[in-house]
Design brief:
mainly beta; Immunoglobulin-like; TIM Barrel; 4 domains; 14-stranded mixed beta sheet; 7-stranded mixed beta sheet; 5 helices; 39% strand
């Protein structure tokens, strides 16, 4: 007998688990060697073809086959993620769920004899529970059950071999997403990406089919035929595949062209084909807040940036893990950000989510994807004032996050506004504009909203972020789990930036100048006052000409011009594309501010960064 083989295990059901579904999974554990009273059996789900906890990151044990970080529980049979365990011989056992960890442990209160069998049920529904959610993540295939056993209960865990795999797969194809770069010069070829997804938003593994591509004008014929092959796993970019000959706003229509794809069709986000001068800014899409398995998410930084570029179809992306990792991991993350940066094609930023002695998390973004790492776990009593002093001299931008948890007015932390240039308007977890908005979640009220902070004199541009914990920046929607509040289907967030080019220098400069807007989808939006674009601080006199251009991914409910938190004009009802001008002839009051809010019929939104005015 193998002296290290203490248990054996088989799993039910045999068929694959579908990403996003609620399931019940049973592990049948047979005791091969006696386990003493107080012994422990620890289970987690961490090994996949793409995720095996590389040693250079020094990771804690975690796993994301299930949403175990916030969902496993052993107290409420009727709730999600209920875990149970029973001994065939009637020995007393119980489940231990260490706080903040993604594994669970079976504690053998009376010991277990050879031949005893444990039945461990994940997502037990026998008492009316709903099951356990299989996590959304971008990797499919076998996930190995990892099991360690401490026979004596003294902390000496022994890894068990020959554990079963959990097969993870996608459901049937249901939706076709079409993405295109937001701007194109007439007569110049541009890229198109298509992604076939299932009901849960997963790109469908092994998908194969033929599609036709045409423009959205009624008199335009089919211009191209394209093919998805099984190695594409349901997503592929077709470089320089479309040419727009005319000025204006365009969209691309993709339609299934064979028996397997005929039911699928999709229309792209809008593309602005207005002719531009060489010195005009371009528009770039990105995500400025997301996590990897260097803190509490899934998949390594390499995968995070790869997904953003290739599946997410983003122009730039920032990795901002919680500040719970060690300095050597920070150095490794810095190397990855440098290796994956391609100026002009894909820009990587690096930072972290600081969680010190403050009631709001602070997202830190470094211009050159490297900078001072000052983790709050080393100095738990450091407040934001001292933290900003540590960052003094760095080329850095900070943005507050998680407004819905504050419950009171914001504390000014950067009165000069040299670092706090942005604020997270929307993520998959929160929308923080106002407590009356359609996407609000949490404890948001008039005191802790972004509108309240603007009224108190804080000045920042608006960004949208995914806050992804599944390494999928650029995903359109995701089912998000909230502790104690079930699940919600939420838009991921995006940031649009008007910049001279796709480089760190140009994008960081544009973000610092607040030439950006937050969005839930790839909505085109331009907002100016007297010709000055969003983000400016101006001194003016007399009437103000407010110009708005917008093109949606769904018809508009309305587009609001907001002045000092009050809607002063709206337009665009029912349109997909619109441009309008409004003149405000009222007297300018010191610290007036204006911004634009877009609301679509599908629930999508966008928020242009404010413009601040003072009288001459």
């Amino acid at each position: 007998m193998d002296p290290h083989r203490i248990i054996s295990c088989r799993v039910e059901p045999d068929e694959p688990l579908i990403c996003g579904e609620k399931v019940t999974v049973t592990f049948h554990v047979t005791i091969q060697q006696e386990i003493s009273s107080g012994g422990r059996i620890r289970l987690h789900f961490t090994e996949s073809p793409y995720y095996a906890m590389p040693p250079q990151y020094g990771l804690a044990v975690k796993g994301f086959v299930f949403f175990s970080r916030i969902q496993f529980q052993a107290d409420v049979p009727e709730a999600d993620g209920y875990l149970t365990v029973a001994s065939e011989f009637g020995n007393a056992v119980h489940i231990d769920l260490p706080e903040g960890k993604c594994f669970f442990t079976i504690v053998c209160d009376q010991g277990l004899q050879v031949g005893d069998r444990l039945t461990i049920v994940v997502g037990d529904r026998s008492c009316g529970g709903l099951g356990a959610d299989v996590a959304h993540h971008p990797t499919y295939g076998p996930w190995r059950l990892v099991c360690d056993v401490d026979r004596e209960g003294h902390g000496a865990f022994v890894a068990q071999s020959d554990m079963p795999d959990l097969q993870v797969a996608t459901a049937e194809a249901e939706e076709l997403l079409v993405r295109i770069k937001p701007q194109a010069q007439p007569g110049t070829a541009t890229d198109v990406q298509i992604m076939v997804t299932d009901h849960f938003g997963n790109h469908v593994e092994g998908y194969q089919g033929t599609f036709t591509v045409s423009l959205d004008k009624a008199d335009n014929p089919v211009v191209k035929s394209i093919q998805l092959d099984p190695p594409d796993d349901g997503v592929r970019c077709f470089p320089r595949s479309i040419i727009f000959k005319e000025d204006g706003i365009h969209r691309v229509v993709v339609q299934g062209a064979d028996a397997d794809t005929i039911a699928l069709s999709g229309t792209s986000n809008p593309v602005d084909c207005t002719r531009r001068n060489d010195d005009d800014d371009d528009l770039f899409w990105g995500d400025l807040h997301g996590h990897s398995h260097c803190s509490d998410a899934s998949h390594p930084p390499e995968f995070f940036f790869s997904y953003a570029r290739n599946q997410g179809f983003l122009d730039f992306c920032a990795l901002t893990d919680h500040d719970t990792f060690t300095p050597d991991i920070w150095e490794a993350m810095t190397r990855v950000a440098a290796e994956t940066y391609e100026p002009g094609r894909f820009t990587t930023f690096l930072g972290y989510e600081w969680g010190g002695d403050f009631e709001q998390s602070i997202v830190v973004l470094f211009k050159n994807a490297s900078g001072g790492y000052y983790p709050s776990y080393q100095k738990k009593d450091v407040g934001p004032d001292e933290f900003l002093r540590l960052l003094d001299g760095e080329e850095v931008i900070i943005a507050r996050h998680d407004m819905a948890t504050l419950g009171k007015r914001w504390i000014p932390i950067d009165p000069a506004g040299t670092m706090e240039r942005l604020v997270e308007m929307h993520s998959a977890f929160h929308t923080s504009e106002t407590c009356h908005g359609p996407l609000v979640r949490g404890e948001l009220d008039e005191n802790n909203s972004i509108q309240a902070a603007l009224a108190d004199g804080l000045r920042f541009g608006f960004i949208g972020c995914s806050d992804t914990h599944i390494a999928m920046p650029g995903r359109r929607r995701s089912v998000v789990k909230f502790p104690g509040a079930g699940t919600k289907d939420r838009f991921y967030g995006l940031t649009a930036v008007y910049a001279a080019q796709n480089t760190r220098e140009a994008l960081f400069s544009a973000l610092y100048d607040r030439r950006c807007y937050a969005a839930t989808d790839r909505i085109l939006l331009d907002f100016r006052i007297n010709g000055f674009r969003m983000g400016h601080e101006l001194q003016l006199d007399g009437p103000r000409s407010i110009e708005v251009r917008a093109a949606g991914t769904a018809p508009f409910v309305q587009i609001d011009i907001v002045k000092n938190n009050q809607v002063i004009h709206n337009s665009g009802q029912g349109a997909m594309d619109t441009s309008f001008e409004y003149t405000d002839s009222t007297q300018i009051v010191p610290n007036d501010y204006y911004y634009v809010r877009v609301i679509q019929q599908d629930g999508g939104m966008a928020w242009a960064s404010p413009i601040w005015l003072n009288p001459l």
